[in-house]
Amino acid sequence: MTGPARTLDRAVLAGPSDEVAPLLLGKLLVSVVGGERVAGRIVEVEAYREDDPASHTYPGPTARNAAMFGPPGHLYVYLSYGIHHCANVVTAPEGAGQAVLLRAVRLVEGCDVARARRGGRDDRELADGPGKLCQALGIDLAHYGADLCDPSSPVRIEDDGTPPPAEPLVGPRIGISRGVETPWRFRAPPG
DNA sequence: AAAGAGATGGTCT
DNA sequence: GACCATCTCTTTT
Prior knowledge:
mainly beta, about 10% helix, DNA-binding, 3 helices
């Protein structure tokens, strides 16, 4: 059962990232960049925590990870491999250092804009990776710290009433060298 | 279908 | 100076 989309309730993000992560599946990631609105349904995420050797917050607060130690509901963006941007939703109480990496969305609006930004690739490959997702939605370091729960934010999360999948696919995270066994990757079942 | 390598720059030791 | 929470293209089964 779905309804009109409104910005995500910040209370949803108040828990630990590994508990919040599966709840973000099915929510809408929306960007309004350069006057263009693009929206995608979140279908793959990963949780990161301060007590987790794979996390950017594991070594403690630094200039780069400051947003992850900030209040929940804000965006933590970083530059990956000097080339791609990756976007995270900060969770848990302020000061904890936890976030959920947005790994993939299924575009539901602004496909033409995303296609142009991505170099006219096949629609299925427009936003099926953390770097691709940011490119498709136009998310970069300019959006560091953006409030995802603010309806006027250039990057936000909307809830149209679609419930998270009852049985998300769960497994180890991808592309990391430490904490490889922790099953904190969550995917919506294909369909 | 799978595996390998290069691109490219910020961050931290 | 090493290490990346990646992507794409090329080469090899």
